[in-house]
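Extended Data, panel c. Modelled sequence:
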Amino acid sequence: MTLAEVLKQGEERLLHAGIEEAALNSWYLFSHCFQIDKGQFFLHSEDIADEKIVCCYERLLGEREKRIPLEYITNETEFMGLPFYVNENVLIPRQDTECLVEEVMKASQGKDILDLCTGSGCIGISLAVLGKCKSVTLADISVEALAAAKKNAVLNQVDIAIIQSDLFAEVSGCFDIIVSNPPYIPTEEIAGLMPEVRDYEPRLALDGSSDGLLFYRSIIAESGYFLKREGMLYFEIGCNQGEAVSRLMREAGFSDVIIKKDLAGLDRIVQGRRKS
């Protein structure tokens, strides 16, 4: 078969399996296996495909047909224009979270930053690369997630601190900014998520307890001990959690509490300042 025929058959397989954006998914898997970009493909689309590489491509198509996320199959994704390694131990970085990073970057220059519940490290590492920070510390309870974060620190050539910690338990010192994208999906809603999320992304990084607010309560309650005077706390939130998280922050004495929206116009960020 030619390269064009192989790619076409891949798209048809994913379409038949009900995969959304089948054409895009089949292309990414094809590009990953054949190590070819679109320009090269257009020049060589009628070349005969290497059978060994075709077998690799077909194997990866089979994994995607099982609804394994594309990013877990290729172990790579892009976030804030930077490359990241991902596997089944970390959430796949999403565009919504880029809005959080962009908001923190407005205040990050020269600052000491803690990224709590870091997962792949995409937030903290992006800030270390792009945010002109003084220092960045990543913390997560999961040893497996931190292994991925370490790979990403090397991949993006940043010098950061990495701590295994159940929230603040092993954290020391104070920070100008604490940023977190904690687990926030209410437990009963997880069963209704799309299979790629429900069956493959780590539940530890999804489940925010019965109302989705468990980690917000804990982080807000303890953050005052780890924020410098006038320090800022930033959260990513579920689109219906803005008022609840804002209220928790105001009740804990935070000032300048603001809800920010994502590119779709949905509540996505809550931020506030520790009172001096």
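The first helix runs from residue 3 to 16. This feature is highlighted in the accompanying rendering.
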